[in-house]
Design goal:
The strands form 4 sheets. A 5-stranded parallel beta sheet has the order 2-1-3-4-5, sandwiched between helices. A 5-stranded mixed beta sheet has the order 7-9-10-14-13. It has 11 helices and 14 strands. It is an alpha/beta fold and about 375 residues long.
Length: about 375
């Protein structure tokens, strides 16, 4: 049950409100009140109430009309409503439930009865919300599990099978090749192996992060060094597509962050840019001051770009379908999901600006010093 549950009392009789409010407030409830239906509807839209106690007989709109309007509004239809009524005949009681009421209390009301019914329906609402949350988490977990199995069976098993067969052909001397053809063959295997390894590493990072098993070691880091390390790492891949990797960073920049996380973010963003940049293109990394002791890092390419719909879901967990790079490289979006989660672990933000046929620029922010960023 929530602490200090919020209750709205609705009655056009001020004395009834005063008595009920005193009973509820003495037992830790946060009580608001309204003296007609219009006021009740307005307050219910502005504040997230845990329960509404609603008198039936009121001037203007009666309690049934108010209840119907509340139940027809998606913003308020989950709030349980207890009617206050002076009539206890079966027809009247049935009418309270048909109108959408969760329960009723007869007037003049007994304080113990009022408290027990209020507490019961607040607990029911709280438990229902917990079940809905758990159900949503279970559905998401099943979707993630299915997606992970799909990645393992198709995106990992397939390439590994090709590598195994290729090595088998060479090892058993089943294929004859000229030296240059053999070199090209091995280079293709190397690229497949590298992509498969990167995917597996991302998958393991992501799984550990979901289970809360990632260990983050925050310290002051030289961002320039981390950027340069990644540029060197991807130099051969860039050369294979004749893509220019360059840094526009002017000055020294320091961040308070976990080294492995930042290397993974940069690696995934640069790798993503390389996949979707045409041969002879350019990828540029830049850094500049942001706000509130943060800096902004950007990875820009002049590649194939994305439409607005793709941009809107590019960081969503397994929501974006596979995209193919300019040389047939397969991208499943997992690297961008991990980048988002690691950026958020540093209380940073990540976003993208892109235009079809003109390229994409990914931006993310990191803290520059140790304040409240430790997790």
């Amino acid at each position: 049950m929530p602490q200090n549950p919020k209750i709205l009392l609705v009655d056009d009789n001020a004395e009834n409100i005063k008595v009920a409010a005193e009973i509820l407030r003495n037992h830790g409830y946060n009580v608001s009140f309204a003296q007609d239906g219009s006021e009740a509807l307005a307050k219910a839209k502005k504040k997230d109430f845990d329960l509404i106690v609603l008198d039936i007989m009121m001037s203007g709109m009666d309690g049934f009309q108010v209840c119907t309007l509340l139940k027809n509004n998606p913003q308020t239809n989950n709030i349980p409503i207890i009617f206050l009524t002076g009539r206890t005949d079966s027809e009247s009681v049935l009418q309270t439930f048909n109108a959408g009421g969760a329960d009723y209390v007869t007037k003049p009301f007994n304080s113990l009865e009022l408290l027990s019914r209020v507490e019961a329906h607040i607990k029911i609402k709280s438990n229902r919300e917990k079940l809905e949350t758990l159900n949503a988490q279970l559905i998401e977990a099943n979707e993630v599990k299915d997606k992970m199995f799909s990645i393992i069976s198709h995106d990992l098993l397939g390439p590994l099978g090709n590598i195994k067969e290729s090595i088998e052909l060479i090892a058993t001397d089943q294929i004859e090749m000229e030296r240059q053809d053999l070199i090209n063959f091995v280079k293709a295997m190397r690229a497949t192996t590298r992509n498969t390894y990167d995917l597996l590493e991302n998958l393991l990072y992501w799984a550990r992060n979901q289970q809360g098993k990632m260990i983050y070691r925050y310290k002051q880091l030289n961002l320039n060094h981390l950027v340069n390390e990644n540029l060197i790492l991807f130099d051969s891949m860039a050369q294979s597509k004749n893509i220019k990797l360059k840094s526009n960073i002017k000055g020294e920049f320091s961040v308070f962050a976990d080294r492995d996380s930042i290397k993974t973010i940069l690696r995934n963003l640069i790798s993503n840019a390389l996949k979707f940049t045409n041969p002879d293109g350019t990828i540029t990394i830049d850094v500049k001051s942001y706000e509130n002791d943060f800096i902004e890092i950007s990875v820009a390419d002049d590649g194939i770009g994305m439409d607005e719909e793709t941009c809107s879901r590019i960081f969503s967990k397994f929501k974006n379908e596979s995209r193919w790079g300019t040389k047939g490289e397969k991208g499943i979006g997992l690297g961008l999901v991990i980048a988002r989660e690691f950026v958020e672990k540093h209380n940073g933000k990540i976003w993208v600006k892109s235009k079809l046929g003109e390229g994409s620029t990914f931006y993310f922010t990191l803290p520059t010093k140790n304040t409240k960023y430790e997790n």
